[in-house]
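Internal ticket #5521
Category: modeling
Description: The requester needs a full-assembly model to guide mutagenesis choices. All entity lines are attached below as received. Residue total reported by intake: 1416.
Assigned to: D.W.
Attached entities:
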Amino acid sequence: MSKEVNSESVSLCPLSTTAATEQEMLCIFGTGDLGRSLGQRFLQTGYKVVYGSRRPHSCGPLPPGTQAMSHVAAAQSARLVFICIHRENYDFLETLAPQLKGKVLVDVSNNLKKNMYPEANAEYLQRLIPGAQVVKGFNTLSAWALQNGPSDANRQVYVCGNSLEAKQAVIEVATKLGFTVLDRGSLTAARELEDFPLQLFPEWRLPLKLATGLTAFFFFYLLIRDVIYSYVVNDKDVSFRIMASLANKVFPIVSLIMLSLCYLPGVIAAFLQLYRGTKYKRFPDWLDRWMLCRKQLGLVALALASLHVLYTLIIPIRYYVRYRLAAHTISQIRENKTSPFDTTMAWRTDSYYVIGILGFGLYLLLGITSLPSVSNILSWREFSFIQSKLGYLTLFFCTFHTYLYGWDKFLQPSSYKWFMLPGYMLSLVVPSVVLVLKLLLLLPCVDGTLTRIRQGWERTDPEQERKKLLLT
Amino acid sequence: MSKEVNSESVSLCPLSTTAATEQEMLCIFGTGDLGRSLGQRFLQTGYKVVYGSRRPHSCGPLPPGTQAMSHVAAAQSARLVFICIHRENYDFLETLAPQLKGKVLVDVSNNLKKNMYPEANAEYLQRLIPGAQVVKGFNTLSAWALQNGPSDANRQVYVCGNSLEAKQAVIEVATKLGFTVLDRGSLTAARELEDFPLQLFPEWRLPLKLATGLTAFFFFYLLIRDVIYSYVVNDKDVSFRIMASLANKVFPIVSLIMLSLCYLPGVIAAFLQLYRGTKYKRFPDWLDRWMLCRKQLGLVALALASLHVLYTLIIPIRYYVRYRLAAHTISQIRENKTSPFDTTMAWRTDSYYVIGILGFGLYLLLGITSLPSVSNILSWREFSFIQSKLGYLTLFFCTFHTYLYGWDKFLQPSSYKWFMLPGYMLSLVVPSVVLVLKLLLLLPCVDGTLTRIRQGWERTDPEQERKKLLLT
Amino acid sequence: MSKEVNSESVSLCPLSTTAATEQEMLCIFGTGDLGRSLGQRFLQTGYKVVYGSRRPHSCGPLPPGTQAMSHVAAAQSARLVFICIHRENYDFLETLAPQLKGKVLVDVSNNLKKNMYPEANAEYLQRLIPGAQVVKGFNTLSAWALQNGPSDANRQVYVCGNSLEAKQAVIEVATKLGFTVLDRGSLTAARELEDFPLQLFPEWRLPLKLATGLTAFFFFYLLIRDVIYSYVVNDKDVSFRIMASLANKVFPIVSLIMLSLCYLPGVIAAFLQLYRGTKYKRFPDWLDRWMLCRKQLGLVALALASLHVLYTLIIPIRYYVRYRLAAHTISQIRENKTSPFDTTMAWRTDSYYVIGILGFGLYLLLGITSLPSVSNILSWREFSFIQSKLGYLTLFFCTFHTYLYGWDKFLQPSSYKWFMLPGYMLSLVVPSVVLVLKLLLLLPCVDGTLTRIRQGWERTDPEQERKKLLLT
């Protein structure tokens, strides 16, 4: 839409006073796929395009309406030069330094891997041609977006550069192409922009691996305990339980463990600070990394909890469950006995479900507030209120839900098949530890010390401490 | 809140060094409803306001504390002039060109329809008064927000203009009024800003129409097949099935078809590129338009799938279902027979439900990542991973879910009533075709060629190809 | 990640032409906890840091690699000075005015309460040192983020200030530290930035209080009616109903009432405008405040509605329900009677569920569109279409759902226990009133007048009206 509008407005108001709108000329260095796509897009938006090429007369098919020249000639005909060349070939640009002086060079390059070079491509370019104004930009877009204009995940363009005016010129082009531009500051941000398109969920890997590992472990554990045991000892084939019943045990177990793993590092960090008596020592690396993926841990746990909810809600429409209920009713009639209504049982199961629902509700709330647009409008006081207070409440509800599930079965020896504990008991270990440790931290004496430490207070003689600090 | 704060800070710190905060004067041209609302809001924020009017002494009630002057006098008393006049009346402004020279003119106008004029209002204004610095802005706000300050969907203000300083001055006013400002670049973006308030879900129309059409078709199809057939042939009134049972067949059918329609255009495009041997030819218009509404197609399908989930989950609390289950149990007892437990049936129904749940879970994930704030933080590598890989997985799960539903009923002649196939069979056609075509595209030889084409490679003699390209 | 990248790029490209990247020196006034945390972070990002202190030789442990000087000396060694001092101690800075002239002063301070001082800290600072360029910033970050760099809810930094270049310098530092920066305009926005970290869901308080009050009231009301009545009159202990059955009555009742309270103020406002014959009089304060928390009212109501859905969906897996169903089947067999299938009953319950599902679906849609990132991309025409048209449709569906629940029980005297009406009847009062009033407003004659008023038209003699307006 924007494309159409812009091109029209250009062709229909030739009297406009802005020089920028009168078919400005843009220069592209490089006639490869990237250069051709970009050039075509510029043309459609109403720009004139000139290509700079080593072999201007044999550089392959270019978009109709453009022309190829030598680099020197092309550079002189435009103020903005888009560098669509691989970084490996940048060095020849050094010879063009006089022609490129004062020009805005837009570095759209990406690398194939992270950390291939000691400095960002754009910084390297700036070093080669100190007289030019290098702007990094457009590199976070997909090829599709570069060729066809903004689409869904490609609406936002990041630029960075040391010159305000140069950035402004590039922002104007990007806006005309229909993109929303975000200024990321000086050229030092170029490295970040160049790494961005290469990443594939880096912070999600650890949580996903953990979830996969735990799921696999508990699946086989419960497979042995529930299905194979039954087959070997009772000679009963209950393999159909794998699809729904077993999964509905594995998911909540893994979910609860992962939820508690979100809160464990915070508790460990607090005890570490208490032990050290200062907050000015860095945490060990593994703790830092753990703390950085808490959000992802929590969201994976939420996904598993949601599956648990859906699996639970389909229980009454499952054939197996309907069959068992009917069989129970039939046997009651045939044996002509009536089981009396058990009020304790009613209380127990209702509480169990209700605590689970409330826990899941809070959990969803935590998930919603971790949406970027929601967490952005929260002050950190609000954010920490939700993620910490409500987070621990969620953990408490979910743990309590599991304890209610166990009820009085904890001490029944009949539930220990082949010396294997029921799965839910295993899942209670970590959350219970976390909740107990958190309770300890809330004791007034401990809480007071911790608060003081977090406000900058340090234990022991400060003079001695300072020396130690200076030595590290 | 911000309003209050700003007005206070103005009145309480008169020693502030910024001239901008000392009751700056703003000029408004036009004393209609828009001008009056805007003026009132300026007053409340701590600005002084002067109106420019043709008949300064009989221009109707103005906000108390403001005054009306002739256009010439009003223009001279302020640096910023807000033009609250209909575009039809802009031409008289040309006579004020000398007085408006160097002023910042804020064009807040909107049109009643798209494309009423060849150029944007703001560009027309700039052409009339070349010496002024025209800034487009505020026009995307509702009248309510203009009068009362920012509220929910009215927090963001877009501005565009050719002069950086002029924009900065307008941004300052908007920020003081409590809005968040987004700079959309030069004045060429004005057209887009002017079209924005006129649109009413333009990209949603096609998907919604399609959903309505498909829903209506399958509703009547199944009405005949399930309800009317039963009434005519078996003389049984099952009209109550319309509310829940029938809807719960229509929704998943339409949802699955629409989900597969999200992926069909991508597959068609790939085959088109393979056939043409190049990616440099534009797709036909219908394909382009289809591809642009894929997200909306998918979200409508997700909404229908969610309804399907809720409809399914209420099955066991429906009177009809409870009655039937009880009747079945009672008949078993009265006839004194016992149906044995059918392990295959247990496997089959459980698999059917579980695949459905997993498909829906993935579907929800796709929906969440299409939230603007989430897709913005994804790199396009991540976005395409989710939308393409996970998308096809979702389609596969949902299709497989439907096949499991059919199971061995595909070849039962008893399910062909009045020669009408069951609805779910019809729904399987498009998804199956999409999945098969996608599988073909994943064959190594096809995939390799396609990848090369998408990297810019072109089939056949490039010399000949270039000539063809130059001729088109 | 960004931290690592930035520090590397600094150390590895010392030839970079940008002065900004060559170990720029930053000055921090104040060696308290805030100053030390900030300094450590600067060091890690590749800056040099110097502290200004009253007692440079005994100011406690500083991050290794930094040095402390007198304020005068420190100020001269850097262009940017971060003021990490409590506002109470700002006054001594006045004596440093000559040294701070032309410097960029970054005010990162916060207050303990709102409105402690007549002007914002940053404005006070600017007044003390008129020759400096004060920029407010970083104050919305948590201590954790200041010390360790951006994390989840701490990615966004707001700055404001009167000097564009000063802001640019601060934005550059913030970007290098890894934050995303949002320019909030001139220094008058400082007050808002300083209030931001102090707020704890201000707009949520009223809705949450209301929800708590209504929930408590209906809980005790229904406790008496359902549980205590049964105990006293029938001598039956149904206390187990408290956990699930009772809650599942309270939640939908409160949810429906709160949903209707979202739409009541809009209706009241319309009638007020009709009565007054003008839109230029401000609404009473209570109405304004009510209208401002409509979104929060609606979201709390949505949360309660979601709980209602979950509570309803677990009905068939509850022990009590299963017991009762089995008991019913058993009694039917023992008494050897068959209850015939009741088509009306099937229609009624299905309609009841289906209308509820559709209402909840629309409700979720309203909730999704109130996510900031979604409402931001909607034009206000679209937003008001959803929130108004779809909103009233949602209210209608939910009200109708409740009426269907009542069905023919409205006039049954047996449902009036101890003269107490069933809860759902009470919940119908407000929504019914709102819907009837809205219907009245949609009558052509009323709608026409209202539209004219909202377009600025005023009733009665305008001359007289203007006089009245001028007098107020």
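Resolution: model delivered.
Comment from assignee: The CA atoms of residues 439 and 466 of chain B lie 33 Å apart.
Ticket closed.
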